[in-house]
Design a protein that fits this description.
The complex is a heterodimer of chains A (149) and B (419). Chain A is built from five helices and three strands. In chain A, strand 1 (31-37) and strand 2 (42-51) form a beta hairpin. Chain A is globular and about 45 Å long. With 149 residues, chain A is α+β, with helices and mostly antiparallel strands. Chain A has one domain (3-139): Alpha-Beta Complex (Sufe protein. Chain: A), CATH 3.90.1010.10. Chain B has two domains: 18-48 and 310-418, Aspartate Aminotransferase, domain 1 (Alpha-Beta Complex); 53-307, Aspartate Aminotransferase, domain 2 (3-Layer(aba) Sandwich), CATH 3.40.640.10. The relative contact order of chain B is 0.16.
């Protein structure tokens, strides 16, 4: 496998694609939104339980490609227990990481760095960002489904 | 201008030297991601032989001028070349006369022309337009727009699990309110070659006009519009080794005569005053504005190339590739072939269990193999077969069995990565 392809399809990504974390609905979410990229077929629903400005629980449902699924799974892992300010900072950091080449990744992304390779595959960036844009829509209580196409 | 019937000489012993033909296509020497390009996305667009690229360059270097209006030498040369391309197209599809060949931007443009110029004046609320469940969006949406404008309704002929057109359902759907049938000759998503002769015959018997979407057929099966006897036949230049931005609507002269213009502007008129404007003769009535002159000339060069190879030779070569590809790809565990009609053109759509089509496409791309992944502008087909999308390999005259082997190796690599 070439270096770039290996960078995109790392072990961690396969792991999160085959065994996604937090893939289920939340019974009583405080926020929820849907995301859909009709041109490629990725779908995701993000559920959040936010109390006192902290993400107590977060989960997702949906079907999509390896990148979209792994990104949603990794996102839910990263967001648990974060404050809303931290969530916003993570969104910006993640978005910068997958769209711009840089020598050092934005700080604090942790495991999300496995998706850095997506920037070499511009056609797939929308797969990686769908869950995050859907998260934003959920927090902003937007009714319309989100798309990153 | 009336056409003499062109006879395609097809010597029985003509062997197909695919490597020599590949050498005619400069782009096939490209490297992609450090690998030789294996271009298997011909249903999306085809590559161009040197003769087509040269025809475009030569036109702009030596003959470029506006057509039909000038009195100077270059404009005469440009006009002659443009009209020669029209005659070439008429010969290629065995049209009765050059006045039946309208140059458009492509198949989509041609279908929209028929919808608006033929359909819109004619349809009443409750009238029916019949299409099939395997159409490309370009042969669905113009009719949906038309239904919205006129109150007509769409009747969709189903497709069975193998991707075959349901002739029985079609026959029973044709009725007194049916005003148009619009069906594909070859499905871009499934590869099915529809029973188009039968479809047209049944429509004829019911007095219903027929439009045929020939975008996927033109480079892969012989097209004889007089034999087909359809009212409208549409195709795109870029799917038959010609440039983008040029297409053809063939239509029976009687139909075109009865239709109002599609777009107004220069060239489609005979005279203009603010009180009254008279329209031009066929086919110019439907060619408003400066046409894609270079595009038409490039298309002519492309048709010359296909004639030189022989459409029958192309058909046989692609049939062999499809058989080889189907045999090898369906042997891969976890693969499901979508589109298994008895008669198919060189298109192979498939899914791989547990892997999204886009992941297949990205990993194959990394090995230099270009396929298409997604819904192929045929979302209803994807829904019918219960998939979000498929991976699709589509062949042309320059593809080889070795390239099919590269595709198979790529799919096996994907399977290992996701195991």
């Amino acid at each position: 496998m070439s270096g770039e392809l290996r960078d995109l399809y790392q072990e961690v990504i396969f792991d999160h694609y085959k065994r996604p974390r937090n893939q289920h609905a939340l019974a009583d979410p405080s926020h929820r939104a849907e995301g859909h990229n009709p041109l490629c077929g990725d779908r995701v629903t993000i559920y959040l339980k936010v109390e006192d400005g902290v993400v107590r629980d977060v989960a997702f449902e949906g079907a999509g490609c390896a990148i979209a699924t792994a990104s949603a799974s990794l996102m839910t892992e990263t967001l648990k227990g974060r404050t809303l300010d931290e969530v916003n900072a993570l969104f910006r950091g993640f978005h910068d990481m997958v769209t711009e080449a840089r020598t050092e990744e934005p700080p604090g992304l942790g495991k999300l760095e496995v998706l850095a390779g997506v920037r070499e595959f511009p056609a797939r960036v929308k797969c990686a960002t769908l869950a995050w844009h859907t998260l934003n829509a959920a927090l902003a209580k937007r009714q319309q489904p989100v798309s990153t196409e | 201008m009336k056409m003499e019937r062109e006879v395609f000489a097809a010597p029985a012993d003509r062997t197909f030297d695919v490597l020599r033909r590949r050498a005619d296509f400069p782009i096939l020497s490209e490297s992609v991601n450090g690998h030789p390009l294996v271009y298997l996305d011909n249903a999306a667009t085809t590559q161009k032989p040197r003769s087509v690229i040269d025809a475009l360059s030569r036109y702009y270097a030596h003959d470029n001028a506006n057509v039909h209006r000038g009195v100077h030498t270059l404009s005469q040369r440009a006009t002659d070349a443009y009209e020669a391309a029209r005659t070439n197209v008429a010969r290629f599809i065995n049209a009765r006369a050059t006045e039946e060949i309208v140059f458009t931007r492509g198949t989509t443009d041609a279908i929209n022309l028929v919808a608006q110029s033929f359909g819109r004046p004619m349809l009443r609320p409750g009238d029916q337009i019949v299409i099939s469940a395997m159409e490309h969006h370009s042969n669905i949406v113009p009719w949906q727009l038309l239904c919205g404008q006129t109150g007509a309704v769409l009747n969709v002929v189903p497709v069975d699990d193998a991707g075959e057109f349901d002739l029985d359902a079609y026959a029973s759907t044709l009725g007194p309110r049916t005003k148009l049938v619009a069906v594909t000759h070859v499905s871009n998503a499934l590869g099915t070659i529809t029973p188009i002769a039968r479809i047209i015959a049944l429509a004829r018997a019911a007095g219903v006009p027929v439009l045929v979407d020939g975008a996927q057929a033109i480079a892969h099966v012989g097209v004889d519009v007089q034999a087909l006897d359809c009212d409208f036949y549409a195709f795109s230049g870029h799917k038959i080794f010609g440039p983008t931005g040029i297409g053809v609507l063939h239509a029976k002269a009687a139909r075109l005569d009865a239709m109002p213009p599609y777009q107004g502007g220069g060239d489609m008129i005979r005279s203009v005053t603010f009180e009254k404007t008279e329209y031009n003769d066929l086919p110019y009535k439907f060619e408003a504005g400066t046409p894609n002159i270079a595009g038409a000339i490039g298309l002519g060069a492309a048709l010359d190339y296909v004639r030189d190879v022989g459409i029958d030779v192309i058909e046989a070569h692609e049939r062999d590739l499809l058989a080889w590809a189907t045999e090898r790809v369906s042997a891969i565990p976890g693969v499901r072939i979508i589109g298994t009609a008895k008669e198919k053109a060189g298109i192979l759509s498939f899914t791989l269990e547990g892997v999204h089509a886009h992941d297949v496409g990205t990993i194959l791309d990394h090995a230099g193999v270009a396929i298409r992944a997604g819904h192929h502008c045929a979302m209803p087909v994807m829904t019918r077969f219960g998939v979000a999308g498929t991976a699709r390999a589509s062949f042309a005259l320059y593809n080889t069995r070795e390239e099919v082997d590269a595709l198979v190796a790529g799919i096996e690599r994907v399977r290992r990565m996701f195991a």
